Amino acid sequence: MDLGLKNIHVLVTGASGGIGLETVKLYLSLGANVTAHYNSNSKPIQDLQVNFPALQCAQADLSSESAVKSMFDTLTGSPFGPVAVIVVNHAIWTAEDVPIIDMTIEQWDHTLSANLTSSFLVCREFLRHLRIATEGVKDKASIVLIGSTSGKYGDKDHADYAVSKSAMMYGLTTTLKSEIVKIAPRGRVNCIAPGWVLTPMTQEALNDPAISGPLLAATPLKKLGTPLDVANQIVIVSSSVVSGHVTGQVIFVEGGCVGDILCCE
Ligand SMILES: NC(=O)c1ccc[n+]([C@@H]2O[C@H](COP(=O)([O-])OP(=O)(O)OC[C@H]3O[C@@H](n4cnc5c(N)ncnc54)[C@H](OP(=O)(O)O)[C@@H]3O)[C@@H](O)[C@H]2O)c1
To answer: For ligand 1, atom 46, which residue shows the shortest CA distance?
Structure first.
């Protein structure tokens, strides 16, 4: 099936990480022109560039308003032209357990800034560039935010992360879906919310049987998610061909995991 993504300019943020890199590879295999964003680690993307001329990379600390603006200005002037699809995938999660009672304001602010404020900045700048883009780009416009089961069930000892994801899933996605159509009448906004996926972000935690044991017990499919499980859903929901009437949705990719069992232990 043709997903209509050939030659479409797709931006994936946090593309040097587990889910982001897999998503970049999938878009490339479908003929998209891909900008892979990174913050501090360009190596995995540069390795991929050797084989894919339709891949360019962009560096930015997305917590910085000026860096986000400058990244979009550069991308619009690049050979790929204005971005039509964004996958807002970057985020941080602190492996150390810190209950709210012990959480510093610095940790709280840092996570909210890295995950949520940065996502607002990326979406806002995307919309500003979309407003002046061609009708062809507007017709394909799609925002895919990456949430988490933590945003639905909470995340014991990681409230900063859980709150940042809830806000993306239930405040940002639902609001943006009503605003993007004022600029691009067929524009869509959805959120993919993974459960635990084995990536650099979670490797340390998932090596602990005290975490992985109850997690698998609460997952009907009895397996951890893979980056490809998540990437497949991202790509499908971003396609205006197969998902053209799907917007404002939060789609869980968690093997049926009843997440609150873990969160309450
Ligand atoms: N893995 C899971 O189990 C899981 C579960 C649910 C949801 N998720 C969500 O899925 C997404 C991808 O997760 P992942 O596991 O693939 O993570 P990952 O491997 O740790 O990659 C995250 C990426 O985010 C980038 N990043 C972090 N802060 C940034 C900032 N301020 N500015 C720009 N880039 C920044 C990092 O870039 P650099 O390395 O270049 O600095 C990194 O490549 C995240 O939104 C995460 O919350 C993951």
So the answer is: 91
Burial class (CB in 10 A: 0-12, 13-18, 19+), 114: buried
Domain limits for position 37: 9-264
Q: What is the pLDDT of residues 31-64, one digit of tens each?
A: 999 999 999 999 999 999 999 999 999 999 999 9
In a domain, 3, yes or no: no
Judge whether 190 lies within some domain: yes
Q: Residue 238 C-alpha to ligand 1 middle, in angstroms?
A: 19
d(Cα 225, Cα 129) in Å, to the nearest integer? 34
Cβ–Cβ < 8 Å for 63, 40: no
Counting the structural domains of the chain, the total is 1
114 C-beta closer than 6 A to ligand 1: yes
Any atom of ligand 1 within 6 Å of the Cβ of 63:
yes
Model's pTM, two decimal places? Answer: 0.97
CATH number of 238's domain: 3.40.50.720
For the chain, the residue count is 265
Pair type for strands 85-88 and 188-194: unpaired
Contact 248, 147 (CB under 8 A): no
Distance of CA 145 from the midpoint of ligand 1 (Å): 12
